[in-house]
Amino acid sequence: MTDLDRLAAEKYVLLTTFRKDGRAVPTPVWAVRDGDALAAWTVSDAGKVKRIRRDGRVTVAPCDVRGRPHGEAVPAHATIVDAEATRRIRGLLKQKYRLIGRLSLLGSRLRRGEQGTVGLRIVLDR
Predict the structure, then answer these.
(1) What are phi and psi for residue 71, nearest 5 degrees?
(2) Cβ contact 50:43 at 8 Å
(3) Could you give the residue ranges of the DSSP H alpha helices within the chain?
(4) If we measure between CA atoms, which residue out of 29, 38, 18, 15 comes closest to residue 92?
(5) Do the beta carbons of residue 7 and residue 60 sit within 8 Å?
(6) How far apart are CA 49 and CA 58, in angstroms?
(7) Which CATH architecture has domain 3-124?
(8) How much is the mean pLDDT over the chain?
(9) Gap between the Cα atoms of 10 and 48, Å rounded
(10) Pairing relation of β-strands 32-34 and 24-29?
């Protein structure tokens, strides 16, 4: 099983972004396979979005809902995707996370609107 397969099968992954001073900022996120990459979804004005815009270098590791890792971190590169790709990622998340995914995405859309969230595409380095 490849790192991509293993991480895509997890319920949560720990996405670690890096501040300007190099300090790591880990965040548990939902992730789903998107072709040859992982995809995640987050609030548009989240700190991780700002850090990814500045420097797409990240790591991803399997974790629990509280962000406690239970596997090796894998280096990767994250990018923020456009509105069309974000819609596709939302659809993939609905398929993987079923009812709770649909409810979370609906609640987010009602609270923030379509532009309130963005998709992230995470390509593993290995």
Answers:
(1) -175, 175
(2) no
(3) 3-9, 47-54, 83-112
(4) 38
(5) yes
(6) 12
(7) Roll (2.30)
(8) 93
(9) 20
(10) unpaired
**Which of 103, 105, 102, 100 has its CA nearest to residue 116?**
105
* pLDDT, tens only, 25-76: 999 999 999 999 999 999 999 999 999 999 999 999 999 999 999 999 999 9
| HSE-CB of 75 using CA atoms within 13 angstroms | 3
**Residue 32 contacts by C-beta under 8 Å, 6 or more apart in sequence?**
8, 38, 39, 40, 89, 92, 93, 95, 96
Residue 125's pLDDT band, with cuts at 50, 70 and 90, is very high
| Inter-residue contact 3 to 125 (CB < 8 Å) | no
Which residue carries 């997890």 as its tokens? Answer: 10
Chain Cα centroid distance, residue 108: 15
What ranges do the domains of the chain cover?
3-124
Give strand pairing partners of 118: 42
Structure tokens at 103: 């409810």
Count each helix (H run) and each strand (E run) in the chain, helices first.
3, 7
